[in-house]
Amino acid sequence: MKVDGKDTRTIWVESDGKSVGIIDQTLLPHRFASVRLKTLEDAAHAIKSMQVRGAPLIGAAAAYGVWLAMLHDASDENLERASAALLATRPTAINLAWALDEMLAALRNRPRPERAAAALRRAYEIGEQDIAINLEIGRHGFKLIEAIASKKNGARVNVLTHCNAGWLATVDWGTATAPIYLAHDKGLAVHVFADETRPRNQGASLTAWELGRHGVPHTVIPDNTGGHLMQHGLVDMVIVGTDRVTAQGDVCNKIGTYLKALAAHDNGVPFYVALPSPTIDFSVSDGLTEIPIEQRGAEEVATMTGKTKDGRIETVQVVPDGSPVANYAFDVTPARLITGLITERGVVAASRVALAAAFPERARA
Length: 365
Ligand code: MRU
Description:
This protein has helices at 40-48, 55-72, 76-87, 94-107, 112-151, 178-185, 202-214, 226-231, 257-267, 287-290, 299-302, 352-358, 360-364; strands at residues 2-3, 6-7, 11-13, 20-23, 34-37, 157-161, 190-195, 218-221, 237-240, 244-246, 251-254, 271-274, 280-281, 303-307, 313-317, 330-333, 340-343, 346-348. The chain is an alpha/beta fold. The protein has two domains: 2-129, Four Helix Bundle (Hemerythrin (Met), subunit A) (Up-down Bundle), CATH 1.20.120.420; 136-364, Translation initiation factor eif-2b, domain 2 (Rossmann fold, 3-Layer(aba) Sandwich). A seven-stranded mixed beta sheet has the order 8-7-6-9-12-17-18, with helices on both faces. It has a four-stranded mixed beta sheet with strand order 13-10-11-16, covered by helices on one side. The protein has a three-stranded antiparallel beta sheet with strand order 3-4-5, with helices on one face. A hairpin with a 4-residue loop joins strand 10 and strand 11. Helix 4 (94-107) runs antiparallel to helix 5. 5-S-methyl-1-O-phosphono-5-thio-D-ribulose binds at residues 53-56, 93, 163, 165, 169-170, 175, 202, 241-243, 253-254, 329.
């Protein structure tokens, strides 16, 4: 998508041909800067520290991390070591394991001298595939927005989203945002309520930033506001992203997604989840018991970082000294609360039968 009129992606190969560029998302929204990854360790650090984040982008970054590892040492041992190190960075988004499996499948049986070039090719393909998938998600989701717009006689469609499942969370376009960008670009009146998404504020810092840069009307709301808006008919639909969808259609996403699904269900607001097929984990069924939920550091809850009036970036403590905090990063929304899954193959029901019918090759594997 565009940043200051310039087409920008979240990850790219640098012109030196031996390093990877990323947008450092920990600096947004107040600074837009890139970081150069030169080693496997740089890539693992970028994922762990959330310089790159969002399920599809984590997968793409891990793929490039394997390439960086192969540039330095293309041995079997280093391939396995790199894959294990990257896999250990974050536990919940299945795209990470998916991308690493893809890289291992492309490299394991290759002679060493060919591995670096093959790794670069496969990593690039994974990124391109992500963009193509997201565009298809956009086309299918656009029809949903268009149908609501026509029911409202062209009045603006209000979409609520949680966290950041925008282009910053992918290589480009985003998942939840792809239908929104397409609708906006085609001239439909669309407005987004962006949940701020404590504790890391991906909605306030990232979703609001990218929507603003693209000119999409939006309003940042505190996390507790969505239910109130839905009770008053101010939300036409919810579209969120996901880090892992189970074979039976349960959806794991950023903490707080479940509460929005409950509120949407109670108020008859359609609740959609946008996802690329690599986010489906057919090896698990029950999202509540089978998906590892990342628990992150206390400082993310105990502090907030922002810009002071004189332009300095400062972090302040918002809880009393010594108060314990809990920081569960994700929750699970059961399939029964989901109106539909917006995939690259169309909008499918959140059910075992529908998912297996839409992605038979993945379900069988
Ligand atoms: O902890 P994060 O910022 O990586 O969490 C991101 C999310 O929960 C997104 O909604 C999800 O990865 C889908 S991204 C298209």
